[in-house]
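Crash report, auto-generated. Payload:
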Amino acid sequence: MISAKNLSLRAGTFTMADASFDVPANGYAILMGRTGTGKTTILEALCGLIRPLGGSIHLAGIDVTRLKPGERDIGYVPQDRALFNTMSVYDNLAFALRVRRQSADVVDQRVNDLAELLRIGALLNRLPQGLSGGESQRVALGRALAARPSVLLLDEPLSALDDQSRSEMHALLRSVREKTGVTTLHVTHHLEDAAELADQVLMVQNGAIVAANVNSRDLSRLQGV
Amino acid sequence: MSLTRAEPHRTATRHRLGSDVPFVLALLVIGGFYILLILSMLLADVSFLSPVVTAGTFLHQPLWSIRQMVFSAVAPLQSRELRYALKLSMISCSITAILSLYVAVPLGYLLSRFQFPLKGLVDVVLDIPIVLPPLVIGLSLLILFQTPIGRAIDKRLPMTYAVPGVILAQFSVACAFAVRTMRVTFDQLNPRTEQVAMTLGCSRFQAFWRVTLPESRRGVLTAGTLAWARALGEFGPILVFSGATRMRTEVLPTSVFLELSVGNLEAAVGVSMLMVVAAVAVLLIVRFAGSQASLSGGVRP
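Recovered output after restart:
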């Protein structure tokens, strides 16, 4: 579950005051909005990378407003993926588990499970440099899921992909949701992602977050941007 | 129909570009002048020491000429004093490089990632050793060690006119270059990877240690090399702060100065060549060690 109450944020020129929204446990919410409306800033606040001016954030029933990013039990995939370039794909996937001092056997088992789920078994020994957009997106997703977070935060995960990879990733995200039941907040400006994946659509509008319908005119207008 | 009619008109007004060759040639000529200057200086040194090597022999028998260069460079090592100076130079430069990294990595990271009061002032302070005449730094160090605190330190760890002073004098200048390099390195690294590491369970230190530091390896290597090279060439501060005592505080630049001051031009050039060989050797080793293959150590066996 993701629950933001009266959230006030400021980052650069972006400000948001008293925004509230809820994503139920195991839900898949899409957060839409025009470029520059602060979607990434909202994700950063949920991650704990920026501190809100006011309000509270509950993740999986716990008040995380004052917790550090590493204490929030989240998986975060930033827009640029930000893979660890000095580590192999295997080490990227194993990262969160090794930080938690899991035994090598547990790490190995989990990495192999993830590689199978995300179909990246053949890439485990590769370095992130040289991976295709779709491949590196899967690795970033696997890295975020490794420690079995209760909340998954995706920032434009499909933005740089071609049509073929997009529909593959749609299928993959659906199967991830089916198998892990992780509560997901997915930031995008593609209406297609909302139609394919979401059971809830949120929209950032004039510094507020409002619920929207996939078929609503507001969203169609967004798509035209 | 209309398309075919439009075609001749389009061809007539097509924007035409000249050749790129003159531009590239200009780059080569302007840049080449400087490279030629460096090579000519070195060649002049060599032909001064071993007159058999000329530009002609260098072009026709490069290997033989390089061997002559190395011979003339190691010739001064027959002197015990110069062997000591070489040893002191190598050891003190290496210690300076390590100490500089020890300071530059945390300071560069701090300046790159955090905003704090008086940051602009700290930046200016860090530029002082870079812009100040080296002699002034030596003088300032000398005066610092005349203060009560300086004297107290000097009593426990002899600085003035002693080997630790040589290292301190080198460090005072070289470290500023290492800090600048590390700051630029961290500035160029995507802070997002560090942030992702923090969301994956790392503390800020763990994220730095596990992600940012490995990503900055090339910068660390460059900063270390730069500090080492700066330290090797350091002369003014060492002369003022540590003196030029043979078999004690004499480093290679001091040797050049001492030999020159007694009119022994050949020995001075010999020691200079020794420094060239030492510097080139270190640069080559670092280049090789820092090559892509050895740096991409993330691949699992």
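Post-recovery validation: Strands of chain A lie at 2-11, 14-23, 28-32, 54-59, 62-63, 74-77, 151-155, 183-187, 200-205, 208-212.
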